[in-house]
Design a protein that fits this description.
By secondary structure, the chain is mainly alpha-helical. The protein contains four helices and no strands. It has one domain.
């Protein structure tokens, strides 16, 4: 039985890839944590009709380091900010809020799936 010996360069590549995967996993965990908190605060503010706080939370969501897969989340947050900033109907604001919450829930589901996959491996 022969033992394969990896060249030092290959080991370095494996180490770099492992470090990159670890950093990516950390970003997913951080993203899920921050987004979950921001959505909770946003929902509470909307329930009390504190539109200034809703807009602040939506703006904060647009600044979160969003994975590329969350383009709909950023777009929904920006749309809600615009509608609160300009005279928009209450119904339009509520629809944008519902769209943002739905996009947030989808993004959290993706993040949790990634977390689960990381733990399973």
């Amino acid at each position: 039985m022969t033992t394969a010996v990896l060249p030092v360069a290959a080991l370095s590549e494996v180490s770099t890839s492992t470090n990159r995967l670890g950093a990516d996993a950390r970003r997913v965990f951080d993203f899920a944590d921050v987004l979950s908190t921001r959505l909770d605060v946003l929902v509470e503010a909307a329930q009390s009709e504190n539109w200034t706080e809703v807009r602040r939370c939506a703006e904060a969501i647009t600044r979160v380091d969003l994975p590329r897969a969350c383009a709909e989340l950023a777009s929904s947050a920006a749309q809600l900010c615009e509608q609160i900033a300009r005279p928009a109907s209450r119904r339009d604001v509520q629809l944008s809020l519902a769209k943002l919450i739905g996009a947030g829930a989808s993004a959290l589901e993706v993040a949790r799936t990634c977390q689960h996959d990381d733990v399973a491996e």
